[in-house]
Write a structure and sequence with these properties.
Blueprint: H1 9-14, H2 25-28, H3 38-70, E1 75-76, E2 79-80, E3 89-93, E4 99-106, H4 111-138
Antiparallel strand pairs: 1-2, 3-4
Length: 143
């Protein structure tokens, strides 16, 4: 009876003349068969049912979000205020009223979109104020 490969210190001292460094495929036992149990079959059916239910739910959310997106009152001056739309980033609207395939716009009715709107308004205010001050200094106005 032959023992498995010896990769210990003794083999390192003798050199690698007796055994290869990597084990052979039959030593590892790469070919294995899996027995199907009742639990595995039931688990796979439950997973497929759960997947189907979640796909239906996701499709209903997508349809509702698209319906809100298509309403004209959700848009104001090119900004999107889709109340009830759960997406933070919604597709940008093209001039013919369809969704742009790549570009996105912030939904300012989303809770995080409201925070983004506040930050943008603050940034616009600071930028406008800085522009007025720099212009006044450039024109020689002194306080």
């Amino acid at each position: 009876m032959e023992s498995g490969p010896d990769y210990g210190i003794g083999n390192l001292c003798r050199g690698f003349r007796s055994r290869p460094i990597l084990p052979k495929i039959q030593d590892v036992g790469l070919v294995q068969t899996q027995k199907l149990t009742t639990r595995a079959v039931v688990d796979s059916r439950i997973m497929s049912m759960g997947t189907n239910m979640s796909q239906e739910y996701i499709e209903s959310l997508r349809a509702r979000n698209d319906a809100i997106w298509a309403e004209r009152r959700s848009w104001f001056l090119g900004f999107y205020f889709g109340t009830g739309d759960e997406r933070l980033w919604a597709p940008r609207r093209i001039s013919n009223g369809e969704q742009h395939p790549d570009k996105r716009i912030i939904n300012f009715a989303h809770p995080m979109g409201k925070q983004a709107a506040q930050i943008l308004m603050l940034a616009y205010f600071i930028g406008t104020l800085a522009t007025i001050i720099v212009t006044a200094i450039f024109l020689g106005y002194s306080w």
